[in-house]
Please model this.
Amino acid sequence: MTPTRAASRHVTVLAPLLVALIAAFLTPGRASAASLQEVTGFGTNPGALRMFRYVPDGLPAGRPVVVALHGCTQNASGYGTGSGWLQLADRWGFSVVLPQQQTVNNASSCFNWFQTGDIARGQGEAASVAQMVDRQLADTSGDTSRVYVTGLSAGGAMTSVMMAAYPEKFASGGIAAGLPYGCAQAAGSPYVCMYVGATQTAKQWGDRVRAARPGFGGPWPTLVAFQGTADYTVKPVNMTDLMRQWTDVHGADQSADVSDTVAGYPHQVFRDAAGRAVVETYSITGMGHGQPVDPGSGSEQCGTAGAYVLDVNLCGAYRMGRAWGLG
Model:
């Protein structure tokens, strides 16, 4: 075959493919797949954090926003994918804000949940995350009444911070292997808080939250919490203390109104006087330190297993999202 004929034949074969590709990209409403994007200039950023976000293609105005805070040694991208939040954003239609710590702030890339200057309203990392929320709501015309914050480990502890210091911004929080607000100060050290826990009554825990936002009349964010029973980095007593803290803030008692199992794991629901679920806890039997996930394509599955992201046949992000009415 001569070069001219070969070229002619290739054009004949490729022409329909080229036409199809051009038509596909010109089809109204078609766009490239969404990807994680960094946002700069989102505010004064006193905590010197980085802001990443994920917005599904074609997301309409008025949709919810989820803030997802990674754990130590993790980053925004890895946590967003591993936890399942980006997968659920596509499935259910909401945007995700993913704050990222910098090693200049913390050598292990942990959010500084134990530093007084980073956990108070209007200061440090807490203020930086609050500014990210405001920017995301403005850019996506998001629903200000449906903003949620969640995180793992240090990110879970920072979730407590955001719920306490900026309660008006969040409808609910979701914490995996995290810590109650003010735990490092109550225990005298972050390590005592993590490995032993702090000795506080429910009221003392609640008072720490109320002091973070003096005069706030509510409603306070509700809480969904997950904890591995074999977690030796953040002891399970911390989820008990989270329950005590947030039931007290909501004026509820510390007796579960529902005690059952979900995917074989003990699950409890605590309701306020009006019967509203204000705290939910999942005790993941045998799980170590990490975010519970259930990789797969099933309707209740999400996440990708990895370091501190553990396949236990239950996806924490899915359970949080369902509790929040996202899907």
Summary: The first strand starts at residue 37 and ends at 39. Confidence is low (pLDDT under 50) at residues 1-32. Residues 51 and 243 are 30 Å apart (CA to CA).
